[in-house]
Amino acid sequence: MNENPNNPYPKLLFVFGNDKSLGEEVAKFLEITPSSYEIKNFPDGERVPYQTETVRGRDVFIIFTSQNGQEIDRWLMDYLRFVQAVKRGHPHRITVILPKLVHQRGDYSYGREPKMSDFYPSLLKTVGIDCIIVCKLHNPASQTSQPAMDNLDTTFLITDYICERFTDLSKVVIAAGDLGGSKYGRKIANKLGTPLIIVDKDRSKISGETQAMKVYSYGDISPQIDTAIFVDDVISTGGTLRQGADALGEQYSAITNFYAAATHADFGKETLNNFVKSKFKEVWVTNTVPVSDEFKNEFKKQGKELVIISVAKLLAKVIDNVHDGNPISSLWE
């Protein structure tokens, strides 16, 4: 029997995707066992996922995480099929949790390209979900109203970690690797009370090729500052961060300690090589995108440290608040 006076509909959590580590961690914080499902494979390659227990009248939450490069588009289609299967079971409500909104950097379309940031939420609406929960959108304008979307601000996870690592913030400067990340960098710098440096590419007006890097400082960059923390919402190749650190180091020789921090570890094939050749000692990311053990081991082998900051506790609290009908913004404000 459900004894929650705020929501008479029992809570169910499904953990879907090719890496279930984050979802299982969320389940531990919620003190519940993830509900079960199966995927039926056919000889022609078709896959049909379906739940193996009733969802009728339940408040259903479905979290999806997948490693990059692991046939992610196939798993996304499986996710859509599974959500539709759940919908056909007549639940009270379906809330999907995408720690990183897939294709979120496709927030602009060029020429004949599709606008991918709208594409997947539209598909989820079609199969009947009620709400989407995501972490740190690349572009806040991608937040949809149909279906309703909650954009969780994970900035506090980064700032809390910085405060744990550095007791004297007077020696720290926050840096943004380009103008696009300047707003996020300024937000973190203001919260920590540190100066801000923005590094941007100086492009040729004729060819568009990068000729140099410009360094802009905001606040007092005192000689005692020896640590620069580059922040962004997502790290992909790491090339921009690498160039930014090189440019900052040339202009401020006293800064010798470099760190990079981001919400989403959207690592690609060039990421490892760029960080190995960079000035960065450590890279800090959350686990919205699972990082393979192979990447972690190779990163460590090259003398670099990768720190994973978990969003599981935040997601668990959000699920509880949504289920109970309580606000969620107080969890990070």
Written account of the structure:
The chain is α/β, with parallel strands linked by helices. It has two domains: 11-153 and 312-331, Rossmann fold, CATH 3.40.50; 155-309, Rossmann fold (3-Layer(aba) Sandwich). The protein contains nine helices and 14 strands. It has helices at residues 21-30, 72-87, 116-127, 155-165, 182-192, 239-251, 271-276, 293-301, 312-324, and strands at residues 11-16, 37-41, 47-51, 59-64, 93-98, 131-135, 148-152, 172-176, 196-203, 210-218, 227-235, 257-265, 280-286, 305-309. It is elongated, with a radius of gyration of 21 Å. It starts with 10 loop residues before the first strand and ends in a 9-residue tail after the last helix. Mean pLDDT is 88; it is low at 204-210.
Can you count the beta strands? 14
- Overall tally of domains: 2
Q: Ranges with pLDDT <50 over ≥5 residues?
A: 204-210
Distance linking N and C termini: 34 Å
Spatial strand sequence of the major β-sheet: 10-9-8-11-12-13-14
Structural class per helix/strand content?
alpha/beta
Specify the overall morphology: elongated
Which CATH architecture of the largest domain? 3-Layer(aba) Sandwich
Which whole number gives the mean pLDDT?
88
Pattern of helices and strands: EHEEEHEHEEHEHEEEHEHEHEH
Number of helices: 9
Strand content: 25-35%
Quaternary structure annotation: single chain
Radius of gyration: 21 Å
CATH topology of the largest domain: Rossmann fold
What is the percent of helical residues? 25-40%
Highest-level CATH class of the largest domain: Alpha Beta
For the report, how would you describe the main beta sheet? 7 strands, mixed
